[in-house]
Amino acid sequence: MKTIPFNSLSPEALRSKSCVGQNLSHVSLPGRNLRDFDFSGADLSHANLRGGDLSGANFSGANLTGTNLFAARLQGANFTSADLTGAILEQSDLSQTVLNSTTLKYANCKSANFSGAMLGLTDLTYTCLINATIEMQQLAQAVLRGTFLPDGNRPSL
Questions:
Q1: Do 110 and 133 meet the contact criterion of CB atoms below 8 Å apart?
Q2: Per-residue pLDDT tens digits for 18-77
Q3: Per residue in 61-91, pLDDT tens?
Q4: Cα–Cα distance measured from residue 104 to residue 37, given in angstroms and rounded to the nearest whole number
Q5: What phi and psi values does residue 98 have, to the nearest 5 degrees?
Q6: Closest Cα partner for 132 from 100, 91, 98, 101?
Q7: N or C end: fewer C-beta atoms under 10 angstroms in the chain?
Q8: φ, ψ at 47 (rounded to 5°)
Q9: CA 70 to chain centroid
Q10: Using the 8-state DSSP alphabet, how is residue 91 labeled?
């Protein structure tokens, strides 16, 4: 995994909080304050953002496949049409996030907080939501094939 130190991001990216469309695949920035950054359309596949503060960040259309977001603070972030296939979101705070038309296939969302999150047309195929804070009405339009629900059960189809 390549490690890109936080201070090696371009001065313009740090000043403007913009990494739009950048290739940040395999970047390692655990525990960093990236509040309100714009990562729209960026490739953050297999990145390590574990424990970071990404509240209010824009990930719309971003590739976050296999990204480690364990215990990340993501309140109010926008993941519209992002790909989080296989992402680790265990114990993350996703309250008030926008996850409409997002792919979360095979993601680990165990004990994550989805309070007030918008999950319209989200693909949660084979996603683990065990012990997650989420209301069943939030999942009304989501794809739940093989999903483990908060109580550990799978939905009846």
A1: no
A2: 999 999 999 999 999 999 999 999 999 999 999 999 999 999 999 999 999 999 999 999
A3: 999 999 999 999 999 999 999 999 999 999 9
A4: 21
A5: -105, 115
A6: 91
A7: C
A8: -75, 155
A9: 10
A10: T
Residue 48 tokens read as 């390590």
Percentage of the chain surpassing pLDDT 70?
92
Q: Tell me which residue of 68, 21, 75 sits closest to 53, measured CA to CA.
A: 75
**pLDDT value at residue 151:** 92
Which pair of tokens denotes residue 141?
A: 């339009």
Distance (Å, rounded) from C-alpha 130 to C-alpha 133?
A: 9
Tokens of 56: 């209010």
| Whole-angstrom Cα Rg for the chain | 15
Q: How far apart are CA 117 and CA 82, in angstroms?
A: 15
Q: Which two tokens stand for residue 85?
A: 């296939």
Residue 101 token pair: 């038309």
b/e for 19-38, b at 16 or more Cβ within 10 A?
Answer: beebebbbbbbbebebbebb
